[in-house]
Amino acid sequence: MKEKVTAIVFAAVEIINQQLSKDEQIDKAMNTPLFYSSGGLDSLGIINLIMTIEQKIQEDLGVNITLANEKALSSQDSPFRTIGNLIDYISLLLNENIK
Fold this sequence. Notes:
The chain is built from four helices and no strands. By secondary structure, the chain is an all-alpha fold. Helix 1 crosses helix 2 (43-61) and helix 1 packs across helix 4. The longest helix is centred in the middle third of the chain and has 19 residues, at 43-61. The two termini are 13 Å apart. The model has no long low-confidence stretch (mean pLDDT 88).
């Protein structure tokens, strides 16, 4: 499942990067920070990325999932810190959803 999630997230990053200038684009790497203050996306960019990922999960896996829920937003260890954290978080949600 993690390989599928990684492919979906990287495809979503590619879509978002097409909307950004060369200087604003983010790398498709596990340790890439997602927050603007860390060199990643601004708040609108994060929202666009989340929405794109949710849509791709629906299209590719047939599962409706909400990534920005209360649990994620209130977590001290944010799943939106890096691409790797986000992939792990999505994999966990999908495993819970499929059971």
